[in-house]
Amino acid sequence: MSSAVESTVQFRKVGTRRRTVKAGWLRPVGAGQVAVWQVAALAVLATAIPLGPTGIAVIVLAVLAVALTSVRSSGLCLYQWLLVRLGHAGAQRAVRRLAPQQDPIAAVLPGLTVHRHVDRAGNRVGVARVDDSWITVVRLLSEPDTPALIEALRAAHSRADIPLAGAQLVVWAAPAPTAVGPGPVEPVRIHWLALRYRPADAPGATLARGGGTTGAERAAASAALGLVGRLAEAGQAGAVLDEPELRQDLLVALGTDPRAFAGATPGSRPEVRVEQSWRTWSIGRLHQACFAPAGNRAAVELLGELVPGSEFTCTSFRLGRTPGGTVEASTGVRIGFQLKHAPRRLDRVLRGLAGDLVPLNGRHGNHVLRTLPLALD
């Protein structure tokens, strides 16, 4: 595993508790914050003696700058919190303009399309297209080994002939429907590996396979089939999802009941609408909330966790690239729960469900998409 990723990865051993890391009022401190504080201090030193109206104004502005870039709430500095508030207000207006949909996927990602690609060997691959990206998904067929999955994901992401824009491991966990035997009941878990190919980032992979839409589809399908082969070498059984399987699994990952939307008569399906508030997001009967580990660390030990009291917990480990080409890793957690409490008690409910994780208030809609097996930014 590359050092850029390995330094942030910690694997959870069976039977161990994950390390608690709480978000502080001031930490983490970044280089940008330190630079602002230094400029504020120098400005005060340059104008405070002798103290006059200019010096007083500079001191007030310096204190305001330090406060906006130091004090944190829910993991955000105050200026970041204000920006999120403004973004949330705009997202609320956009959500209200959306019409109800009979397809939950269309309600959440209006531009997503899914179709079948068949290669020369007869392999059927479901390919999802979102904007300028082509996405394929592999489902694990056996109880996987997390370190082996991460290693295979890293290798697929850095593949020389098909460089990927994103690669993601998503684990969806839900309470077991019935208890079998006297021992503790293991949750039901589904593991997906999603690969996202963007032709604009690596046009050579498309051109080598015929160019155009067909070449992009072939590149995305080849990446998924190559990942299945790499998993097999590591003793992990996986299968590339076909078009109907991909649609069905996206419904599961989204937290909807696939049976309610699988009827043969589209007119008989219920209509759903995306609803979101500052603290929750919902489509259908469950409310959902997204969280991130304190300090934005890539906490792989969270993968597969089932938050007590939740209807389901979806955990995600994603590899992406910065504009400079550096590989970066991130972890996200999304929980689905039934809101049976008054709104004024919602904070207490979420703290009880999520423990030491930082709530992504005002950003739940974006992070719902980032925890779906689509490897989106």
List the helices and strands and how they pair.
Layout: H1 3-6, H2 31-47, H3 53-70, E1 72-73, E2 76-77, H4 78-97, H5 104-108, E3 113-118, E4 124-130, E5 133-140, H6 146-157, E6 166-174, E7 188-197, H7 203-207, H8 212-233, E8 238-240, H9 243-254, E9 275-276, E10 281-282, E11 287-292, E12 312-321, E13 327-337, H10 346-354, E14 358-359, H11 364-370
Antiparallel strand pairs: 1-2, 3-4, 4-5, 5-7, 5-8, 6-7, 6-12, 9-10, 10-11, 11-13, 11-14, 12-13
CATH topology of the largest domain: Vanillyl-alcohol Oxidase, Chain A, domain 3
Intertermini distance: 22 Å
Tell me the CATH architecture of the largest domain.
3-Layer(aba) Sandwich
In which range does the helix fraction lie? 25-40%
Secondary structure class reads: alpha+beta
Q: What's the gyration radius in Å?
A: 23 Å
Low-pLDDT residue intervals, each spanning 5 or more residues: 1-23
Largest sheet: 12 strands, antiparallel
Q: Please work out how many helical segments DSSP would assign.
A: 11
Mean pLDDT: 82
Q: How many beta-strand runs?
A: 14
InterPro entries: EccE_dom (IPR050051)
Protein name: Type VII secretion system protein EccE domain-containing protein
Keywords: Membrane, Transmembrane, Transmembrane helix
Transmembrane segments: 25-49, 55-79
Structure description:
The chain crosses the membrane at residues 25-49, 55-79. Pfam families: EccE. This protein has 377 residues and is of the alpha+beta class. The protein has two domains: 31-94; 95-371, Vanillyl-alcohol Oxidase, Chain A, domain 3, CATH 3.40.462. It is built from eleven helices and 14 strands. The strands form two sheets. Strands 3, 4, 5, 6, 7, 8, 9, 10, 11, 12, 13 and 14 form a twelve-stranded antiparallel β-sheet that branches. It has a two-stranded antiparallel sheet with strand order 1-2. Helix 2 (31-47) runs antiparallel to helix 3 and helix 6 runs antiparallel to helix 8 (212-233). The radius of gyration is 23 Å and the shape is globular. The two termini are 22 Å apart.
